[in-house]
From TrEMBL:
Pfam family, one: Pkinase
Transmembrane segments: none
Keywords, sorted A to Z: ATP-binding, Kinase, Nucleotide-binding, Serine/threonine-protein kinase, Transferase
Gene3D superfamilies, sorted: Phosphorylase Kinase, domain 1, Transferase(Phosphotransferase) domain 1
Protein name: Serine/threonine protein kinase
Record organism: Pseudoalteromonas obscura
Length: 603
């Protein structure tokens, strides 16, 4: 790649491109195009962006011989020390020779930008597959578990010459496993957290040679932080690296795929034993996810020893009725899918004191990404609940949710509109997991979130004096569908559940009046004002449910926009409105009941 293109390399954190400023979005698009063009100039064909993560983003291209290559770049926005890890990743990948791991081709550096080149794994990553399919079938899970077990064994038995030199992957999770359903080929990608193991499964130091033992500081860890949603307690707490880390990644992965979640934290409320898996398999996974190290390790040993036998069990698909959504959602088929972003009210009540504060001094980009806001001092079930809300936003869906935990019950109000009929079943699994996790939360309180289409977000730029720059006032769009009127509902103020000093924006009275007027018209929707020094963003969606009121409705939306330009304060404020008639009541439930795969599936 030319120096010029590398020099300008710029990719933002994973946020919807539609929420970036016009300038940043343009820069981002230009960059992707420059990278694609440069890879094409280097002779690769059909170059496309195939993935991105916290550390990098990944292109694929076809080499002259027809071989499929992958090019991984680190994000230019990361610290140089973090970006330098791509070279370590390249080195570790080059050390692995396993049919389930993409072959290493080269590492190249142009100026400060490294590019890791490797073979393209066939298929799609399991996070994507899980989002499309919902809960994976027991047979697929058992099959995957056996393959992963075989890779784990290969990694821990790896030798350097005569001596044992086990390798830890360190970041096993669904998005790092690529699966081709047709050929049943699995690949484990992303070796960015990989290291040589310092201790073996029994906790004994591994020393490949005597010099290593003498020179290395055997008390401190060489471990890298994997994804905090999937790594086990030891990796999280900075223990020395061990093949046990990957057992944890495998258990988390199987669990997440079995339960249609994007993390390991829900296992207390939705144990593997409740997911219709074969009894032995479910118990091993629950054992591996246990809080008790002895149980965990024993289950890990059992998994390695017995997975081949467990995989021999005949597991035909059993025709179960498709799960019903615990809360209703509408489905519409639309060609322009929303780019969904979720915005949630303060998560304060989900916080729990973390007395150990064990992660405070771990300096890691990914830790920062996940822990900055709230995860740090939040209980496991609360983490899982929040992760499940984020998972909902991975679907093309707009709407709002409000969870109200009271003494005996959980009340859920919702208004969700899914824009792709094919995803109905998978979305049902995701929604049901969210509800089950909410049932498992014991504190009393309120949590609300809006899911909106970032493509619709209105951005009004401000000049240096703070005045808005526009030629014509933008319009708030809405859809209309007639639904029999229910009783008048009240609007939810977005931050109703407590003042947030960082986010509270004082809205002009006129806007609030309009919102209250709007409330008298049967509709559902949300509007969030995000006022920054250089621009104002208005995130929203509106769905009018009483077509006869359209004139009044659109007049009020126009009025809101007119008063918007008098917003001078900074911060966030918003409202959402959900139809009350959809309120559902659920019992609180700390653990879902046991459900195994039938002993006799033919019956
Ligand atoms: N060799 C490969 N073949 C096919 N797809 C790949 C390959 N490597 C990566 N990908 C795809 O690109 C995505 C991102 O890659 P990767 O996980 O390596 O990036 P990352 O920035 O390290 O991500 P993370 O946030 O998980 O650490 C993967 O989820 C996968 O879908």
């Amino acid at each position: 790649m030319s120096k010029q293109s590398i020099h300008n390399f710029y990719i933002n954190e994973q946020q919807s491109i539609y929420l970036l400023s016009h300038h940043d979005a343009k820069k981002h698009r230009q960059w992707l195009n420059i990278c694609k063009k440069q890879l094409s100039l280097l002779g690769y064909q059909d170059v496309e962006l195939i993935g991105s993560g916290a550390f990098g983003f990944v292109f694929a291209g076809v080499e002259d011989s027809g071989a499929q290559w992958v090019f991984k770049f680190s994000r230019i926005t990361l610290a140089q020390s973090v970006r330098d890890r791509l070279e370590d990743e390249a080195y570790m990948l080059s050390q692995i020779n396993n049919p389930m791991v993409p072959e290493f081709f080269a590492f190249e550096r142009v100026k400060k930008q490294g590019i890791l080149m490797m073979a393209r794994a066939k298929g799609e990553d399991l996070e994507q597959i899980s989002l499309k399919q919902g809960r994976l079938k027991p047979r697929d899970l058992v099959n995957l578990a056996l393959k992963l077990r075989n890779v784990l064994l290969d990694l821990r038995e790896r030798k350097n010459g005569m001596s044992l030199q086990p390798v830890v992957h360190g970041d096993i999770k669904p998005s790092n496993i690529v699966w081709d359903q047709q050929s049943d080929a699995f690949s484990l990608v992303d070796w960015g957290s990989s290291v040589y193991a310092q201790i073996d499964v029994h906790g004994e130091p591994v020393a490949s040679n005597i010099m290593d033992l003498m020179s290395s500081d055997i008390a401190s860890t060489n471990a890298r932080m994997g994804d905090v949603y999937f790594i086990g307690d030891e990796q999280m707490s900075g223990a020395r690296s061990s093949p046990r880390f990957d057992e944890q990644g495998v258990a988390s992965t199987i669990y997440a795929l079995a339960s249609a979640q994007s993390c390991r934290f829900g296992a207390q409320v939705i144990p593997a034993a409740s997911l219709g898996l074969p009894i032995e398999f479910a118990r091993v996974i629950d054992g591996m996810l246990s809080k008790d190290k002895v149980t965990r390790d024993a289950a890990g040993d059992y998994f390695i020893r017995n997975m081949p036998a467990m995989a021999k069990v005949y597991l035909p698909d059993i025709s179960l009725p498709q799960a019903k959504p615990y809360i209703p959602f509408w489905t519409v088929q639309q060609s322009d899918l929303p780019d969904t972003v979720v915005y949630s009210s303060r998560k304060q009540f989900l916080r729990r004191a973390d007395h150990n504060q064990q992660l405070l001094d771990v300096n890691d980009a990914q830790l920062d990404r996940y822990y900055k806001e709230f995860l740090f001092d939040t209980g496991d079930t609360e983490k899982a609940f929040l992760a499940s809300i984020s998972r909902l936003a991975k679907y093309p869906v707009v709407g709002g949710l409000s969870f109200h935990w009271q003494q005996e019950s959980l009340f859920v109000e919702s208004s969700l509109m899914l824009h792709d009929e094919d995803l109905q079943d998978a979305f049902t699994d995701a929604v049901n997991a969210t509800v089950m996790l909410a049932q498992g939360i014991e504190q009393k309180g309120l949590f609300k979130c809006c899911l909106f289409d970032a493509r619709q977000t209105i951005q009004l730029e401000r000049d240096e004096t703070g005045a808005y720059i526009f030629e014509q006032l933008p319009e708030l769009q809405y859809s209309v569908s007639h639904v029999a009127a229910s009783e008048v509902t009240r609007p939810h103020s977005y931050f109703e559940d407590g003042k947030d000093p960082d986010e509270q924006l004082q809205l002009p009275k006129k806007i609030i009046q309009c919102v209250f007027e709007l409330n008298k018209i049967h509709h559902t929707g949300c509007i969030i004002f995000e006022s920054l020094s250089d621009r104002l963003k208005i995130h929203y969606y509106y769905r009018l449910l009483d077509a006869e009121q359209e004139a009044a409705f659109s007049a009020l939306l126009r009025e809101i926009i007119q008063y918007t330009v008098s917003i001078q304060d900074y911060g966030v404020a918003g409202f959402m409105k959900l139809p009350y008639k959809n309120t559902r009541e659920f019992e609180l439930c700390t653990t879902q009941h046991v459900q195994y795969y039938p002993k006799n599936p033919k019956r």
